[in-house]
Amino acid sequence: MENLFAYGTLMCEDIMTEVTRCHFSYVSGTIRNYSRRSVKNAHYPAIISHEGSHVEGLIYMNVSDSAWKRLDIFEGEMYARHLVEVELNDGTTLPALTYVVQTDYSDLLEPSEWDFKSFLRNSKAIFQKHYKGYQSL
Predict the structure, then answer these.
(1) CA 110 → CA 44, 64, 77, 83, 107, distances in Å?
(2) Which structural domain, as residue segments, surrounds residue 84?
(3) Count of domains in the chain?
(4) Cα-based distances in Å from 81 to 4, 64, 76, 89, 106
(5) What percent of the chain clears pLDDT 70, i.e. is strictly above it?
(6) Domain containing 92 — which CATH number?
(7) Which of 52-61, 68-77, 128-137 has the lowest mean pLDDT?
C-alpha cells in the first residue's frame, strides 16, 4: 500500500473512483521541481522534472495493489511511476508515487501549463467519453 500523488484528471474523485473501483482518503499537497504541462491534442496533463517549479495536487492514501494495476493500465505506456516527496499544507511531507511522462514522450508536451479549473469547465466530459485509458480497463 503506497500513496498516489495525483496532479491531473485523477484529482477528480469520481474519475479516481471509476478507474480504481475504490474510495481512498486524500489531502492536498505540492511537489517541488516538477512542471505540469498540457499534452498536445489531449485533455490531460503530464509532469516533467523542472527545477524551481512546483505542482499542486492530491495525495491519495494507501492505494491498494488492485487499484495500482488499474491505474497503470489507465495511464498507459506514456507514463512511469516515480517516487516523490509531497509537501502537505501543515509543512510535513509524505512519500508518494506519481506518474511522470517518460523521456520518449516528452515531445508530446506543450510549453503551456495545464489548468485544472479549465479542465473541469471545458474538457472533463469529453475526456471521460473519449480517453482511451478507459477502454483499456
Answers:
(1) 11, 32, 19, 24, 8
(2) 2-117
(3) 1
(4) 10, 15, 11, 24, 15
(5) 100
(6) 3.10.490.10
(7) 128-137
